[in-house]
Amino acid sequence: MNIKLCVTAVASVASIPVSLAGSGDGLPNIIYIMADDLGLGDLGCNGQRYIKTPTIDSLAANGLRFAQHYSGSTVSAPSRCALMTGQHTGNSFIRGNMGVIGVDKEHYDTALPGDIITIAEAIKPAGYASACIGKWGMGGPETEGHPLAQGFDYFYGYLGQLNAHRHFPRFLWENNTKMELGGKVFSQDSVVAKTLDFIDSHSEQPFFIYMTPTIPHADLIMPEGSLGEYEQMFAGEKPVRTGGYYNQPKPKATFAAMVARLDSDVKRVCDKLKERGIAENTIIIFTSDNGTHMEGGHDPHFFNSSGGFRGTKRDMYEGGIRTPFIVSWAKVITEPRVTDHISAFWDFMPTMCDIAGVDAPKNTDGISYLPTIMGVKRQKTHSHLYWEFHEQGGKQAVRRGDWKLIRLGVNTPNVRYELYDLSSDPTERMNRASQNSDMVRELSELMDSSHTENQHFKFKSEQK
What is the model's pTM? Predict the structure, then answer.
């Protein structure tokens, strides 16, 4: 991958209104596809040499690619919370992966409270039918965080993250019904099937599908006989023993096959939209919840999964939080474009509200990127972006312009700072903190002002 920060090539279509409500052609459908732990460099359009991803590459080649898009966090639950609520982790309710035991004695996750507005709730007045299909991770059964209690009309998949480590799970949920599967169903197949069913049954009205497949998160496993060309490509590789994950005898071949399966399933969704005659006015967004993982036998260095950037999942470096972000909308994006507009998961809330013609919640930290999608020159920009992470001693990061400050060891006596100029050092190899004490102080103060206290996720200095 050729790493650049400034790669704008925006075609002007300023005659198209930014507000789409009331347009004669009707509101567009939106399908937001979010892979799990897929790295920026795992896609062919970002330089992947081994794994074929022709469908996703085609979406990028014919659509809009955001070169500087960031996930909500460096792990799953807080990243998804930032996406669904429009708040960065300095203000959001869920700021880490924190397990709880549900009413059925299974492991789930910290639940969103009922008074928090999600995207599904915000756009409902515009007439959107909404579905969450795949992995949720923000509330188990009979909680206020359940997708059906958070504005979604339909849910299928994993309510909890621990169960989502298994691609052949013991059970999945459909709405409020727990389906015992006994580890005999490859969940990706049923997630795609339910997505296609929802498109079929809602093609006459605007719909929003939050499709969240769990591949290529570990376990690394595929149905028997489905490694395809990658079995021969990586013939002779050594098996990996992983401890808590499946002990994979063919880790490289399996990881590659999982990403290729994801791509082929995106094609199935695209084909269904064409079959129903609604492809032109359907927005397809493709992304990942955070950077690539190093679990279950996956070798991110071999695959260059971080696309040349430093770090992986759980890091505040670019490889942990910068994510692929592709927007396809055939009716509007008629020429391929790449934008260097700096955006993040919490921007999706105001963007969706702009599309639906409804007011975004007042507490959003996001800025709508609909002007960038439309190609008009009215795009607002962020003063800064902020992240926090409550594992590994506590971490914080802030980006203002091209400067990025990382604070490590927040919960330890040995707090340390790393400062990077992303314009000249996008791979974050040259720590400039010691030479730029004024910048460190300014960005450190910005970190502090971006963080609000949270009852569940406290840094050590806040604990009493």
Answer: 0.95
